[in-house]
Amino acid sequence: MPDGSGDLLTLQEAAEQLKVHYMTAYRWVRQGDLPAFKAGGRLRLRPSDVERFLTQRRVDVVLPQHGRTEWPTHVDRLYDLLTDGRAVEAAQLVRKVIADGAPAGQVYLDLLTPTLHRIGDGWEAGILSVAAEHRASEICNVIVARLSDSFRRRGPARGTAVTFTPPGEQHAIASAMAADFMRAGGFDVHHLGVNVPLADLRQFLQIVPCNVMCASFTNTGAEAAVYAEITRLGHDGGDTVVVFGGQGVDPDAAASSGGAVVESLADLVTCVEDLVQVRA
Prior knowledge:
By secondary structure, this protein is α/β, with parallel strands linked by helices. Helix content is about 55%, strand content about 10%. Strand 6, helix 10 and strand 7 form a beta-alpha-beta unit.
């Protein structure tokens, strides 16, 4: 065991790096989650261990855990429950998957997202009615709302983010999940919901400055001018990072506007972090 302090961190320094209270870091050490040892009568931590722990804490609700979860089987089961309107059983399935060890973010990525895509494809193919598709979406809205607290982090915020869908976009789930992933990344999030008029968005940004704007598109066909106006609103308020995502996003229109495109929720926080660092 090292006996010199060298480049080692004190527990207070580690807590500041982790952006948590000293006692929170101490609890993690006591639980064995955060490696530490005594040197000179004080707890010391290796910077590499703190960085590794920070990375794990950042992604523990978003990256896949390599276990025995049979995701395709769960997707099939959830699809059947949602299309049959069996809300209670759908919620029970999600709770069981989490109880078996899957983090909430992986449930979003590997269970809810592919199931909802299949439902959307079923509607487009005429297999599901609009009513059935809307019912399934509402059940998922409730499930996502119940999981939202799993993504909240304590400690100082890394910035402020705004999540929303543009005018004409009525699908709420993708934007709500994006809001949760940003919370998991340590951002204070103002989730504005669906079908936000751009004039109202402009007014909101004048009152609540933000570092990041996340616009979600589920339907295709939004005009390039919508992307351009959203990006302009972000840049008018400062050097705001503007991110577009969702199943219906137009990558060319987004890129032409000067915004960034995120293909997956799993990439959202990393993309935002990279862009914030570049503009810092």
